[in-house]
UniProtKB/TrEMBL annotation:
This is medium-chain acyl-CoA ligase. Signal peptide: none annotated. GO terms for cellular component: mitochondrial matrix. It comes from Corvus moneduloides. Its cofactor is Mn(2+). Its EC number is 6.2.1.2. It is found in: Mitochondrion. The lineage of its organism: Eukaryota, Metazoa, Chordata, Craniata, Vertebrata. The gene is LOC116451997.
């Protein structure tokens, strides 16, 4: 009888674990590792997506429960520092109670309801994280925008997104006021920071009197959770809708295997709050893994400040853009001691192998490059434990089936160039964006046959590693040769004279177009003879890569045009080159 009883009990447990609708709500017996592995197995298609899911109640509150029971490493959920020496540390419990208060503020004082949209244009202040979680709890769609946006940009975004609430800082509010009257959807305005302003509610004052009792909305997995704007590298930024599960569950594999995160880790991602990269590395990937989100609120990216922060705080995992790694190795971080740091990741643009090699020499650490878009979680990555191929994007991250396809959506053989694509037939991955907001044409245009196409060109090698060639628009077609800017830029960066470089097409009467390099010189080379230097750089490229790729035109410049995220806008340089034609 006892065996039969045990057998029944075992099967009941198994049924609960396998149940598609299972949530962690109220289940106190779960272990730390089970939270991550449950969501990981959904990513690996071993378990079905639950019908209802909410990151706040199903993940964050679960970590808070384990923390309370003493079954989670004593790591804060959130650790924020500023240049002025201020510090904020929240446990998962504190994050829970503060975000419940914030949810009440949004629902009561701001009169927002489930499904309404709220736009937050804030620098890296702790309230950004609170409001993010508060919106999840209330089922409000959160729309982050970078504080580098101009009032005109914000006006466009408010109109386009039909946001009912604008949240901004006391310093940004005056500049915004001029454009707000034109936003017919806007119902409430919330200020984060000190001081009062006519017509604005103040979060701090409202939080002081808000109740910490709030029942989390039971959101459906596919319900919209957040809208992010793309960087606008190739055109006007697109509004990408992500659901509660796409970002909420989809980052489990990214966090565990690419970022190497566990509940003992402290993750620092330097991305600005307005970009999807902050959702990746400062919200979902670390928190689904129970790690601590570390934030340094610094108005400007200064390599010496980054290096000091990495030395001073027990940061274990560091993520920053390739350009930032480039600035760090140029600053030379060899003299710093990053005692806790054990894992570095990057993405968002191409990481040149030269930077990878220098970082390894200076710190002893690899940089694990990953690739993805606002529309996705990590598509490819050089994951922990895998052989790293410097210069490659790594291999497909589950559940994505990544292929290189031709113009008709047919998969091309290994070694052949095509468009990097993610299979959506017969099964569309749950962690792919839902749509471009109010733009069915653009949403449809992102599909080709059985695939979602990224718009990036690449090659897959025999081992399944994907190599980035360039954005489709950036490929140079010179006398029948197709040349990706990345390879030429990587070759040029190996030369000590080159500090930064962008390679684009330029008109040519014979070849149609030729390779042109815009180069920012390293300080020691600024006074060199430009003609001699041009020749030397051309010879250098011919030596380190196929000679037909060398830049026939070279222009030395003071700086390169970049998006607010720091990505090089080759489009701007290209347009100037072709303007006179
Ligand atoms: N590791 C990487 N190497 C090279 N490029 C990368 C890498 N990771 C991401 N990218 C580039 O960044 C893009 C995704 O960035 P994001 O979603 O911010 O929008 P964007 O393409 O920069 O802007 P927009 O779509 O508005 O032009 C990818 O499509 C790819 O071009």
């Amino acid at each position: 009888a006892l065996t039969a009883k045990l057998g029944r009990c075992f099967h009941r447990c198994l049924r609960i674990l396998r149940s598609p609708c299972r949530s962690f709500h109220g289940n106190n017996r779960l272990l730390t590792s089970q939270i991550v592995s449950y969501y990981e197995s959904i990513n690996q298609c071993k378990k079905e997506l639950p019908e209802y899911f909410n990151f706040a109640s199903d993940v964050l509150d679960e970590w808070a429960r384990l923390e309370k029971d003493g079954r989670k490493p004593a790591n804060p959920a959130f650790w924020w520092v500023s240049d002025e020496g201020e510090e904020v540390k929240w446990s998962f419990e504190e994050l829970g109670s503060l975000s419940r208060k914030a949810a009440n503020v949004l629902c009561e004082a701001c009169a927002l309801q489930r499904g309404d949209r709220a736009m937050a244009v804030l620098p890296r202040v702790p309230e950004w994280w609170l409001l993010n979680v508060a919106c999840m709890r209330a089922g409000i769609v959160f729309i982050p925008g970078t504080s580098q946006l101009t009032a005109k940009d914000i006006s466009y975004r408010l109109q386009a997104s039909k946001a009912k609430c604008i949240i901004t800082s006391d310093t940004l509010a005056p500049a915004l006021e001029s454009v707000l009257p034109g936003s017919q959807f806007l119902r409430s305005k919330l200020i984060v920071g000190r001081g009062s302003r006519a017509g604005w509610l103040n979060l701090k004052e409202l939080l002081a009197v808000a109740s910490a009792d709030h029942e989390c909305v039971k959101t459906r997995s596919h319900e919209p959770m957040v809208v992010y704007f793309t960087s606008g590298t190739t055109g006007f930024p697109k509004m990408v809708v992500q659901s509660h599960s796409s970002y909420g569950i989809g980052f489990a594999t990214t966090g565990r295997y690419w970022m190497n995160l566990t509940p003992s880790d402290i993750m620092w991602n330097t991305s600005d709050t307005g970009w999807a990269k902050s959702a990746w590395g400062s919200v979902f990937a670390p928190w689904v893994c129970g790690s601590c989100v570390f934030v340094h609120n610094m108005p400007q990216f200064k390599p010496e400040v980054i290096a000091e922060t990495l030395s001073r705080y027990p940061i274990t995992t560091f993520c920053t853009a390739p350009t930032a790694f480039c600035m760090l190795v140029q600053h030379d971080v060899s003299s710093y001691k990053f005692l806790s740091l054990k894992h570095c990741v990057t993405g968002g643009e191409a990481l040149n192998p030269e930077v990878f090699a220098k970082w390894k020499i200076q710190t002893g650490l690899d940089i694990h490059e990953g690739y993805g878009q606002t529309e996705t979680v990590a598509i490819c990555a050089n994951m922990k434990g895998m052989k790293i191929k410097p210069g490659s994007l790594g291999k497909a991250v589950p559940p994505y089936d990544v292929q290189i396809v031709d113009d008709h959506g047919a998969v091309v053989p290994a070694g052949e160039e095509g468009t990097i694509a993610v299979r959506v037939q017969p099964t569309r991955p749950f962690c792919l964006f839902s749509q471009y907001l109010d733009n069915p044409e653009q949403t449809a245009a992102s599909m080709r046959g059985d695939f979602y196409v990224t718009g990036d060109r690449g090659v897959m090698d025999e081992e399944g590693y994907v190599w980035f060639v360039g954005r489709a628009d950036d490929i140079i077609n010179s006398a029948g040769y197709r040349i990706g800017p990345f390879e030429v830029e990587s070759a040029l960066l190996q030369h000590p004279a080159v500090s930064e470089v962008a390679v684009v097409s330029s008109p040519d009467p014979v070849r149609g177009e030729v390779v042109k390099a815009f180069i920012v010189l390293a300080p020691a080379f600024v006074s060199h003879d430009p003609e001699k230097l041009t020749h030397e750089l051309q010879q250098h490229v011919k030596k380190v890569t196929a000679p037909y790729k060398y830049p026939r035109k070279v222009e030395f410049v003071q700086g390169l045009p970049k998006t607010a995220t720091g990505k090089i806008q080759r489009k701007v340089l290209r347009s100037k080159e072709w303007a006179s034609i």
